[in-house]
Amino acid sequence: MTYQPMRVRVVAAHDSRPGEPFVIEGPSHAERFTTVFEDDGLTGYFYAVDPDWPGDTPIVDALGIYNVDEVPPRIRLVEVGWSDDGLKAMLRLDQHPVAVYDFAARRGWCRSGFPARTATGWTTFGHRWEDEALDLFR
Q: What is the chain's alpha carbon radius of gyration, rounded to the nearest angstrom?
């Protein structure tokens, strides 16, 4: 199999260590969707945001990325990027993909697989990681 580089448009980046609280927003360059990564000092979460969602909040899904006490402190660079069509978002830690959202399919994947599901009704899928999610960026 021939290696094909991923096509990711980085829209937000932050240099920090896990456990240093921060929030970065990564809006799609082509659609209404946004993603948000938050490190609250204890955990890191990646959120899918749809401002047109009819629920109580525009946050339609959440992916658990890390617990600070379980992640190596060497991680520095957090990046949010989007596919060319602006419908798929990726979270990378030090250039390593750890989470993907496909807004068209209403689906999210993360390496932790946590939580198994969210209760917003946005997706019927779980969050278990599948390498095929990276094919969305090729």
A: 14
How far is 17 from 129, CA to CA, in rounded Å? 24
Q: Report the alpha-carbon distance of residue 7 to residue 119 in Å, rounded.
A: 31
Start-to-end C-alpha separation, the chain: 14
For residue 135, the SS3 value is: helix
- Tell me the three state secondary structure of residue 15: strand
Domains of the chain, by residue range, sit at: 9-130
Q: pLDDT by residue (tens digit) across 60-101?
A: 999 999 999 998 778 899 999 999 999 999 999 999 999 999
**What is the C-alpha separation between 38 and 13, in angstroms, rounded?**
12
The answer to whether 9 and 83 are in contact (CB under 8 A) is yes
With tokens 């932050």, the residue in question is: 14
